[in-house]
Amino acid sequence: MKTSRSFLWLAVWTVAAVAAMPIFSGTIVGSKHDLTHVIPAFFIHSSTMNNYGEVCVYCHAPHGATTAIDAPLWNHRTPSQPYTLYSSSTLDSIPGQPGGYSLACLSCHDGTIGVDEIINAPGSGDNLGGPWYGNSAVAVHWKMNPDPFSGATCAMCHDGSTGHYALMGYLGTDLRNDHPIGMTYPTPAQDPDFSAPDNPQSGWGGASSHDVKLYGGKIECPSCHNVHDPDTIPFLRKSNQNSALCTTCHIK
Ligand code: HEC
Ligand code: HEC
Ligand code: HEC
Ligand code: HEC
Ligand code: HEC
Predict the structure, then answer these.
(1) Ligand 2, atom 39, residue with closest C-alpha
(2) Is the CB of 196 under 6 A from ligand 5?
(3) What pLDDT band is residue 138 in, cutting at 50, 70 and 90?
């Protein structure tokens, strides 16, 4: 009798524990881009980032978003520095300064702005300074900066020993070692080494598809990445098995 009872409790706890585990597929919720998820999972983060209790608000707000960059209802402080651009002697297209859709990513990934530095906090429509839902504002907004000696940076722990290695996520403002962005995708007449997209403005697979995208005909960070979908690591629009992502564009 006693045995079957504890067995029952074990079963109940197992079911409860499994149900409580954040296993989501095809959604930003519970992913590395869910900054509300990161914080309760590891209380140590509460001194590095604000938990606003909403997933989307780190990047979007329904009202009071910024018009400083061309990105949908953007709610994160935006970078303005000029970036050092990719160049090479075999390049035909001319990479431009990153467009709004790339600046959106760089607003966290260039390491100059704190990941939680948003424009419109939830709750009141107030600007930074609160009042906030849930946690109160912290004094420092930690950045994805690789230099652990420069103060409040995620790299203090994310060096692969205290926390997982995350320095690859830091691109910096020198984009010379990154795939070029900000250039108009060539037509087959301009460059026969490239496949023709379904739509020269929006890319492959139609507006509602998650396939490789162009933004006003240009390549930007989210051409290859889907910030909302962690399923194809790291947040890729399609698997790069057999270089399928690369050969969507490059005929090689
Ligand atoms: C880490 C930043 C980030 C978070 C968090 C985020 N987004 Fe986005 N979102 C972006 C970026 C960058 C774009 C533009 C690139 C693109 O189109 O994928 C975008 C585009 C969009 C778009 C327009 C393009 C499309 O795919 O339909 C919608 C709608 C959207 N987001 C909704 C949401 C919602 C709802 C949430 C919360 C559940 C959310 N986002 C969370 C960064 C984010
Ligand atoms: C609000 C800040 C923020 C914005 C905006 C943002 N990211 Fe991130 N991103 C993060 C954080 C935080 C991580 C997790 C870093 C870590 O592993 O500790 C991350 C991780 C990633 C990763 C690596 C995931 C992995 O599994 O290692 C990729 C790829 C990525 N982001 C791409 C993008 C792209 C592309 C955009 C724009 C479309 C973008 N991010 C916008 C904060 C942001
Ligand atoms: C005091 C040390 C410390 C600092 C500073 C720190 N982290 Fe972490 N972080 C950890 C530890 C420990 C873990 C759990 C082990 C792991 O995933 O590496 C973790 C996990 C994470 C995860 C994975 C969470 C998950 O559920 O998969 C993300 C994303 C993350 N941190 C982002 C950040 C970002 C962004 C910053 C800077 C704003 C930051 N961390 C600063 C220690 C830290
Ligand atoms: C042409 C496609 C393409 C473009 C454009 C692109 N990326 Fe990536 N990115 C990738 C691929 C593929 C990977 C995975 C590389 C690997 O696994 O070694 C990646 C990896 C990453 C990672 C994770 C690094 C790691 O290994 O943890 C981050 C963060 C990232 N990209 C951010 C960005 C940002 C920000 C931009 C715009 C400045 C951008 N990407 C533009 C294809 C692209
Ligand atoms: C969305 C379309 C697209 C995707 C996806 C894409 N590229 Fe590109 N890539 C381009 C364009 C356009 C250029 C500029 C080429 C030029 O002007 O000569 C370029 C440039 C390059 C260059 C530099 C060429 C030079 O002459 O300096 C390399 C190398 C490259 N891509 C490799 C890759 C790899 C590897 C992948 C997959 C991880 C990839 N690309 C994915 C469109 C794409």
Answers:
(1) 105
(2) no
(3) low
